[in-house]
Design a protein that fits this description.
The chain is an alpha/beta fold and 489 residues long. 24% of the residues lie in helices and 25% in strands. The chain has three domains: 9-82 and 120-192 and 286-375, 3-Layer(bba) Sandwich (FAD/NAD(P)-binding domain), CATH 3.50.50; 84-112 and 197-283, 2-Layer Sandwich (D-Amino Acid Oxidase, Chain A, domain 2), CATH 3.30.9.10; 388-485, Glutaredoxin, CATH 3.40.30. Strands 1, 2, 7, 8, 9, 10, 18 and 19 form an eight-stranded mixed β-sheet that branches. A seven-stranded mixed β-sheet has the order 5-4-13-14-15-12-16, covered by helices on one side. A five-stranded mixed β-sheet has the order 21-25-24-22-23, with no helix packed on it. The longest helix is centred in the C-terminal third of the chain and has 22 residues, at 343-364.
């Protein structure tokens, strides 16, 4: 694949025209497409496979991602289709040895309405996002449309698909996974390490004879072989099976291969596995792209960072890449914001991805438990150029610009998340009667509440992705901030 400068406008005659080309219809690409659709931004998703991904691979939706899904209007569907994680049960010699809790329990608090991971198989997550995209009128997804080559110039991106069709877009986003063809075409390096040299088999299976009350865990035995775990997938009749093998072994992903490993490492007979619905193998890696942007092309999701599945951070970090990029592309393409706003995507997401990559690796190696950090509610952008804090002498624990905006009660009896929901900014006045500046209502909604401890008192401009962009005791400096995000404000 070549990446050249397109000089001849005739070369794109007859091209499919769109604002944003999204390569990959996984959770990252579909989340971005949904966010752009509700902003009136045209997006075309191209996916080389003939259908949505069929497996359960990323099955844990962390609390921060549940908040994203709340804002996108899919949390009810996700909760209806998914469920809570079962308690682990350790087996040995065909006998139950005792429970093993995979997660540290977290208390439900007023400012964080989602406090535990939601189990939702990846294929179901993608179905829900795809259905939402259609509801929003953005159903432009081309399946069986592999990318042949990509070029960019000062005004846009031109992509040629494997079937000969051409796409012309203002921007392109690589959401095409860890083996991203777009990243390779751009020549962006991927720096990382093998977290564990031992290959792992993962499969969605049917085992009618096994109860669904626990996440069944079979530790390695003296007879050889690594761990094996069988987890009931909420909302389905399936189980996700994961089995570790020794380095140098090639896992057999066939029905007979899966049956063989189940019979060898558990009390179950081989024919207890009645069906293998999807299977794959991998070696746990941790790697991150050297940069997340090249001109008019952005990397998101696994194309930008690859995680060990331990801790359930990969899919969640990927969804939040899309959520961060969506409002910025919308602001530039529809809101008149300066193109420099897009530089903040890498500035904000690369450090977050690095932090979550380290967490995933430590959990995989047993150096850290799945606790509060895996919920991703503590992540923020305090060091971002879009985090402007004008207050001084704040307490150490005070909410600051760049932090996640907490939920809480609003004056009308609903929730703050109800106020924030949608593609707009929210100017939130907390415990103050200071005069508020006039704002463009389509861009920014204004709301007042009484003093509320998680915020303290003051003015807070909440970004469309649920983080505090600007904070102050009065409105001085707010107009300058608006110029960062919209030339029309």
């Amino acid at each position: 694949m070549e990446l050249n400068s397109v000089k001849d406008s005739a070369s794109v005659t007859g091209a499919l025209m769109t604002d944003v080309l999204i390569v990959g219809a996984g959770p990252t690409g579909l989340t971005l497409a949904c966010d752009l659709a509700r902003r009136g931004v045209r997006a075309l998703v191209v996916e080389r496979a003939d259908a949505l991904f069929p497996g359960s691979r990323g099955k844990g939706i962390q609390p921060r991602t549940q908040e994203v899904f709340d804002d996108l209007g899919v949390i009810a569907a996700a909760e209806a289709a998914g469920g809570t994680y079962p308690v682990g049960m350790v087996w040995q010699g065909g006998e139950r040895q005792g429970e093993h809790r995979m997660f540290d329990e977290q208390e439900l608090t007023e400012d964080a309405p989602y406090n535990r991971p939601l189990m939702l198989p990846q294929w179901r997550t993608q179905e829900i996002l795809y259905a939402r995209l259609k509801e929003l009128g953005g159903d432009d997804v081309l399946f069986g449309a592999g990318l042949a080559d990509l070029a960019q110039d000062e005004e846009g991106v031109t992509a040629r698909l494997a079937d000969g069709r051409t796409v012309r877009a203002a921007y392109a986003v690589a959401a095409d996974g860890g083996r991203s063809t777009v990243r390779a075409a751009l020549g962006i390096g991927m720096t990382g390490e093998t977290v564990d040299p031992n290959p792992v088999l993962v499969a969605d299976v049917r085992i009618p004879a096994l109860d669904r009350d626990n996440w069944h865990m079979f530790p390695p035995t003296s007879e050889g072989g690594g761990f094996l775990a069988i987890c009931p997938l909420a909302g389905t009749p399936d189980f996700q099976l994961t089995a570790q093998f020794t380095d140098g072994t090639e896992p057999d992903t066939s029905l007979e291969g899966v049956r063989k490993v189940v019979a060898a490492r558990t009390h179950l007979a081989a024919d207890a596995v009645t069906e293998v619905r999807w299977a794959s193998d991998f070696r746990p890696r941790a790697a991150m792209a050297d940069r997340f942007r090249d001109g008019r092309v952005f990397l998101a999701g696994d194309a930008a960072h690859v995680h060990s599945p331990a801790g359930g951070q990969g899919l969640n970090t990927s969804v939040q890449d899309a959520y961060n990029l969506g409002w910025k592309l919308g602001a530039v393409l529809r809101g008149g914001a300066p193109e420099a706003l897009l530089d903040t995507y890498e500035a904000e997401r690369l450090p977050n991805a690095a932090q979550m990559l380290g967490l995933s690796t430590r959990i995989h190696r047993g150096e850290e438990r799945r606790g509060g950090a895996t919920r991703q509610l503590g992540l923020g952008y305090r060091e971002s150029p879009l985090a402007v804090e004008t207050r001084t002498d704040l307490a150490e624990e005070a909410l600051r610009a760049g932090d996640r905006a907490p939920d809480g009660p609003n004056a009308e009896g609903g929730r703050l998340f109800d106020v924030f929901r949608g593609p707009h900014f929210t100017l939130l006045a907390v415990g103050t009667d200071t005069e508020l500046p006039s704002v463009e209502q389509e861009l920014t909604h204004v709301h007042r509440i009484n003093s509320y401890p998680p915020y303290g008192d003051g003015l807070f401009l909440i970004r469309p992705d649920g983080y505090v962009g600007w904070a102050g005791h009065g409105a001085t400096g707010l107009a300058d901030y608006f110029r960062l995000i919209s030339q029309g404000s």
